[in-house]
TrEMBL record:
Tree of life domain: Eukaryota
Signal peptide extent: none
Membership in a protein family: In the C-terminal section; belongs to the phosphoglycerate mutase family.
Organism: Lunasporangiospora selenospora
Boundaries of the shown chain within the full protein: 239 to 431 of 613
Protein name from the UniProt record: fructose-2,6-bisphosphate 2-phosphatase
Amino acid sequence: PRTFYFSRHGESLFNVMGKLGGDSDLSARGRQYARSLPRLVSTFIPSANKLTVWTSTMRRTISTAQFLPNNKLAWKALDEIDAGVCDGLTYEEVEERFPEDFANRDDDKFNYRYIGGESYRDVVQRLEPVLMDLERQTDVLIIGHQAILRCIYAYFMNYSHERLPYIKIPLHTVIALTPGAYTCEERRFKVDI
Ligand code: F6P
């Protein structure tokens, strides 16, 4: 059966500061993850040398993929959820400056759309061409973002819209999914950094 792989980018400077969005580069830990990826991939992925690596157009995913010798493709459609006016804020700052929005997002995280930005529903829609392509491909490794990978995971694992925005996609872990006729098999490879 056809397996594909995905990982969040290595820890970013914004991750360390707890800020949403942005286009920051990797932290020291994140760079270490990037350096450890080629060995992780060649150890656990049988088709390692045939893989195509898909990234977003953001620094943190491109930097994470930089040491992989494979062909790469950067998709704009894989960029992280656009937090609009909340881009660059921490969750605490969002709650302080936009209390109503903060509460609305908590009420219905899938449908809540950031002011000047996107909802998870919007992201699912813009991911459609990526998912269509992914279904036809073999040997793909996606280096992505938290919200994006939640949508991709939910698509293959049949998670509801209610659960989707809360799926845990840990940093520094490669997840392998093998879609079958009825269920999807999952494996995880974690790097301790
Ligand atoms: O914090 C990292 C991040 O990728 C942000 O850029 C993004 O806004 C957020 O995660 C998405 O997660 P949630 O929908 O839980 O806020």
